[in-house]
Amino acid sequence: LDLVEKDSTNWSIVGDAGGTLQYDEYFMFDGQGLVAGEEYLLLSYKEDWPGCGSIKLGTGTADSNGDVRIVGEMDYVINDYPYGFGGDYEGVSGAKIWLVPTADKTGDCFNAWNPTEYLFENNLINQ
Questions:
Q1: Residue 116 CB partners (closer than 8 Å, separation 6+)
Q2: Per-block average pLDDT, block size 10, for the chain (127 residues)?
Q3: Helix or strand or coil: residue 91?
Q4: Are 2 and 122 in contact (CB under 8 A)?
Q5: Cα Rg, the chain, nearest whole Å
Q6: pLDDT of residue 91
Q7: Residues 84 and 41 sit within 8 Å (Cβ to Cβ)
Q8: Count of beta carbons in the 10 Å neighbourhood of residue 17
Q9: Cα separation, 7 vs 85, whole angstroms
Q10: How far apart are CA 88 and CA 72, in angstroms?
Q11: What is the distance between the terminal CA atoms of the chain, rounded to a whole angstrom?
Q12: Is the separation of the CB atoms in 34 and 22 below 8 Å?
């Protein structure tokens, strides 16, 4: 699954930052073009805004080149999260995977909306 920068007014792909999520029972996310030294949160986003109940997959800090690697297990998202793999929200089935600065999510909900700093899934993913 590719994660890309998007224009939040029309959701077209923009920018140079991006990443790839490889997944099965475990996942590995590699991101590039990020802000060096910034801590990022990889999550399965739960509609609707402010994303309360979104599931944290993992965190990582971008290195001096703006690269980050986050690894972990997918089991919880696949089996326990109703809006994750195979979940249905307003007729849309699949998981939204986002990479966001950890500072934009406090506790269970987002506290800020800074879409120019986020990577969004290019396609929803299903089990």
A1: 5, 8
A2: 94 93 90 98 88 90 98 67 51 78 94 96 75
A3: coil
A4: yes
A5: 13
A6: 57
A7: no
A8: 20
A9: 25
A10: 24
A11: 12
A12: no
The amino acid at residue 90 is E
CA distance 71 to 60: 9
- CA distance to 8, 77, 124, per residue, from 13 (Å): 9, 26, 15
- pLDDT of res. 86: 47
Beta strands at 26-32 and 68-73: parallel, antiparallel or unpaired = antiparallel
For 18, the token pair is 């991006």
Residue length, the chain? 127
Residues 6+ apart with CB under 8 A from 26: 71, 72, 73, 74
This model's pTM is above 0.70: yes
Amino acid letter at 69? R
Contacts of 98 (CB under 8 A, 6+ apart): 3, 42, 43, 45, 118, 119, 120, 121
Return phi, psi of residue 101, to 5°.
-60, 135
How many C-beta atoms surround the C-beta of residue 43 within 10 A? 23
Task: Show Cβ contacts of residue 90 under 8 Å, excluding neighbours closer than 6 positions.
Answer: 47
